[in-house]
Amino acid sequence: MGPRVDRWRSARLFGAAALLAACDPSGARLVVDLRTDLVAEREFTDARLRVYDATGYARREPPLRERSVRASAATDYVQGARLGEESGLSPGDYVIECELTSAHHGGRVVAGRVVRVAIANDWSATVVVSRVCSGTPVRLEGCEGPACASDRDCPAPIAECAVSRCLDGSCLEAGRADACDEGFWCSPDEGCLVEPTALDAGRPDDAGAGDGGDPSDAAGPPSDAGCAGECAPGASESRACGNCGTERRECGDDCRWGAYGACTGQGPCAAGATDARGCGSCGTETRSCGSDCQWGSYGACTGQGACSPGATSSRGCGNCGTETRSCGGDCQWGGYGSCTGQGACAAGSTQSRDCGACNNGRQSRTCTSSCTWGGYGTCTGQVYCTDALSGGTVCPGSTGFRDCPTTPGAWQQCTCSSSGSWISCGGPCLT
Length: 431
What we know:
Elements: H1 9-14, E1 16-19, E2 28-36, E3 46-53, H2 54-58, E4 65-70, E5 81-89, E6 92-102, E7 108-119, E8 123-129, E9 162-167, E10 170-175, E11 184-187, E12 191-194, E13 236-241, E14 245-250, E15 274-279, E16 283-288, E17 312-317, E18 321-326, E19 350-355, E20 361-366, E21 385-386, E22 393-394, E23 399-403, E24 411-416, E25 422-423, E26 429-430
Parallel strand pairs: 2-8
Antiparallel strand pairs: 1-8, 2-5, 3-4, 3-6, 6-7, 9-10, 11-12, 13-14, 15-16, 17-18, 19-20, 21-22, 23-24, 24-25, 24-26
């Protein structure tokens, strides 16, 4: 494969477009040429050109100009051939619709191309219709065919009798001269095929003269010898409409097209449209309509709030209590309520009290993790004296008896000091 091909839009839409040298004082002149690798008189018999005002085309209004050209096998359509000239056009945006039809198949549209042009002065456009687009809908931004910068960029044809050529950025296929025997023609898709026995069947100027045989045996569409108009009676054609749909019309006995019927086969959406819906916590997810007029998948949920409406959240407070808040309709948290279910104390805190016979000791207790008090511990730090006569407790500042230091078995009255020792023992020893 050759160098990378830049798919620049102007070349892909028109093949070539140029400002004409002269300007028509009565209005702009539009010259339209056709370039195609479909084989004239074999694969298509007529080329139909319609010119629309761009706004009118979008509204499906009738064309401003319309003409049909009979194809000729003697014309080199790969190099390009004149389709028509339209003069007296006002400056503005226009849509050019080119359809290739086959009288051998009831006037069916074989392939076509729709392009948009902005005309300020006289303008020339070449509409390229590639054979790879046969059978695809004829609409704006439709099938374009392969792009190229040189012949090497183009894929080889299926048939050996044809060659690929790169012309103005488009790959086209053409039969090689003398590639097929006499009486045969080259189809780039199928190879050398026998020439039709009645190529001109249905033409008003030579009906029944295809091969010199009986006209009733000639293959082709019903004869249109009875009228001369824009189409062959019984022929039909379709065009794109609505959301990737198709509308169809038929040619009447007066050789004029009837009105288009209902738009059928539409998709659920218009290409490029978007659709959004709520998701998650007051968020939004969006999807887009593809070029096939079908919805794609929804994207990520964005713009969500902090919570889901009606949800609640709780946290600890105070002495093992709980406070609760609720999520509002805007997916935002409200304030916390009052602290409920608290215990008697703060976990880990302590409490002390006096203890002992003289109430001068201290004992403590600790608040548990469930915010309830544990039991008091041992009473410590008590100060007292022991009465030697009764064996009882004598608190500091009170009097009692101690063993007499000079007379065994005797007792002496003393006062218990604040340090728990006997003092003021001046009295006699008693027995």
